């Protein structure tokens, strides 16, 4: 059986203290990077810029997006789907982040010691390890 793919753009948002932002959508349990589906005729960066404003009220410019990589994993909230993600790093200093749209909860975590939270497979096994490797100079 073929799995369907959801194309998304997501952001590893880094605060001045090195913490990274995870969000949890309403009616779900897994935390993940903010971001969302790429609409037809949208680039991954334009989709991400739109989603960040919709989900957490964050306005950044395309120059603030630094590619981290392309990752694939089973979708956290849609059974039978694979999520394929263009992921960008964004450093924001100490801007206040507020949840909106479908976001139920926002949480800042230490990417090396996230604590006892449920994370999407894409976040836990792909995006955070890639970020830590890049941060370590790998």
Structural class: alpha+beta
**What are the segments in which pLDDT stays under 50 over at least 5 consecutive residues?**
none
Mean pLDDT: 94
Total tally of structural domains = 1
Number of helices: 2
Fraction in beta strands:
35-45%
Strand order of the largest sheet: 3-1-5-4
| Biggest beta-sheet profile | 4 strands, mixed
Using DSSP, what is the number of strands? 6
Report the end-to-end length measured between terminal Cα atoms.
37 Å
* N-to-C SSE string, H for helix and E for strand: EEEHEEEH
The radius of gyration is 14 Å
Helical content stands at 10-25%
| Oligomer class | single chain
Which descriptors apply to this entry?
globular; alpha+beta; 4-stranded mixed sheet; 138 residues; 6 strands; Nucleoside Triphosphate Pyrophosphohydrolase
Short structural description:
The protein is of the alpha+beta class and 138 residues long. It has one domain: Alpha-Beta Complex (Nucleoside Triphosphate Pyrophosphohydrolase). The chain has helices at 44-56, 121-135, and strands at residues 4-15, 20-25, 35-37, 66-74, 81-93, 103-109.
Please, could you describe this protein's structure?
The chain has helices at 44-56, 121-135, and strands at residues 4-15, 20-25, 35-37, 66-74, 81-93, 103-109. It has 138 residues and is of the alpha+beta class. The chain has one domain (4-135): Alpha-Beta Complex (Nucleoside Triphosphate Pyrophosphohydrolase), CATH 3.90.79. Strands 3-1-5-4 form a four-stranded mixed sheet, with helices on both faces. The longest helix has 15 residues, at 121-135.
